[in-house]
UniProtKB/TrEMBL annotation:
Span of domain HTH lacI-type: 5-59
InterPro entries (alphabetical): HTH_LacI, LacI/GalR-like_sensor, Lambda_DNA-bd_dom_sf, Peripla_BP_I
PROSITE patterns: HTH_LACI_2 (PS50932)
Annotated signal sequence range: none
Keyword 4Fe-4S applies: no
Keywords: DNA-binding, Transcription, Transcription regulation
Protein name: PurR family transcriptional regulator
């Protein structure tokens, strides 16, 4: 059986955009006669047959991909600085637009408005969703989630190497002499703890150092994602008080010397809470995060965090978008362009048929002090 030929295949072979192919095959203006004839000839040679069902479903779709992300707290800039649209457009052959919203906005409601107005081919959500997963079912436009730790399960996604990253961050804290480390995660409902694979990476680091994981090492705060900043600050204040008491923890553990927060978004909020409490990082306590978000540059000290190079992220996200709009499977592996601090180059891998994982590296920052580690009893 011959494979089904789509306009995306024709566009690739003719080195034009899908919009140009659509104009040629549907007799629309905006394309030269010679180019139109070339595309029609190639389509006939390939045995192209329009998919009536797909045409019906996509009759109002525009050749546009919408990149959506939240702004950083208080500054209005996107959480992740992306390259100009031209970079993505040259990779994808479609137009690209960006929509930046504040943490107080409703992501799904914004997407609904964009969907009704522009009917894009695809939404690409960069960073946290900060909304209930079930709400996305009300959208008809396909979605790709990029570094969205709270993304709905089963949706196409580009993810970070959570286990290895958390393992690497924790090992770096051990290398700096820290053995009393508190882990902080969050939850939307007080039941399901986020960042499961990062927690497992932390536990593996403890195991390698002959230490037992105790549930009291993990502090989980429940956050109202509709009011993220205010909610997270209040909950972190509650979590911080017993952790930093001068007389130690009531459960017998000594006061921690380092806190590993499993999200940069949350780590920056904790940094503010610590600062307002009259303490300084890393003088009074060391702090590490996860994510490498652009907003960390606004911190009083640069944060130690696990990060993915922007060029690698763009390469993998662009590949995933291209596959989705062309109805093609994700590649099993993808070589990446950025050289890591150790001289190596990363390789993205498909951990599931719809999930690509991007390897990262440790950014040391200034938020972790080197101390003389006390003996473990």
């Amino acid at each position: 059986m011959k494979p089904h030929i789509t306009i995306h295949d024709i566009a690739e072979m003719c080195h034009v955009s899908t919009a140009t192919v659509s104009r040629a095959l549907n007799g629309k203006p905006g394309i030269g006669t010679a180019r139109r004839e070339q595309i029609i000839k190639r389509a006939r040679a390939l045995g192209y047959v329009p998919d009536a069902t797909a045409q019906s479903m996509r009759s109002r779709r525009t050749d546009c991909v919408y990149i959506v992300m939240y702004s950083g707290p208080g500054n209005g800039e996107p959480l992740l600085q992306l390259p100009p649209h031209e970079v993505f457009e040259s990779m994808l052959g479609v137009s690209v637009r960006t929509h930046v919203l504040s943490v107080h906005d409703d992501l799904v409601e914004d997407l609904k408005q964009i969907e009704a107005t522009y009917a894009p081919l695809l939404f690409v959500v960069f960073g946290p969703c900060l909304t209930d997963s079930w709400k996305f079912s009300s959208l008809t436009t396909p979605l790709l989630f990029v570094l969205s730790d709270d993304a709905p399960e089963g949706r196409p996604a580009v993810v970070s190497d959570d286990f290895d990253g958390a393992l690497g961050v924790t090992e770096s804290l051990f290398d700096a002499g820290h053995q009393r480390i508190t882990l902080i995660s969050d939850s939307a409902d007080g039941k399901r703890v986020n960042y499961e694979h990062r927690i497992e990476g932390f536990r593996e680091a403890l195991r390698r150092h002959g230490m037992r994981f105790d549930p009291s090492m993990l502090s989980t705060i429940t956050i109202d994602f509709g009011d993220y900043l205010e909610s997270s600050q209040e909950e972190l204040k509650k979590a911080l008080h017993p952790l930093l008491r001068e007389d130690g923890l009531s459960n017998g553990y000594e006061r921690p010397t380092a806190v590993f927060v499993l999200s940069d978004f949350l780590a920056l909020t904790l940094l503010k809470v610590v600062w307002n409490a009259g303490m300084r990082v890393p003088k009074d306590i060391s702090l590490a995060g996860f994510g490498g978000w652009t907003m960390t540059k606004y911190a009083p000290v640069t944060l130690r965090t696990w990060t993915q190079p922007r060029a690698d992220l763009v390469t993998v996200a662009g590949t995933a978008v291209s596959c989705l709009i062309r109805s093609k499977p994700f590649p099993k592996t993808l070589e990446l362009p950025t050289q890591h601090p150790d001289g190596s180059y990363g390789t993205a891998i498909a951990v599931t048929p719809t999930t690509l994982m991007v390897p990262g590296f440790l950014r040391t920052g200034e938020s972790v002090a080197t101390i003389a580690a006390p003996p473990i009893e």
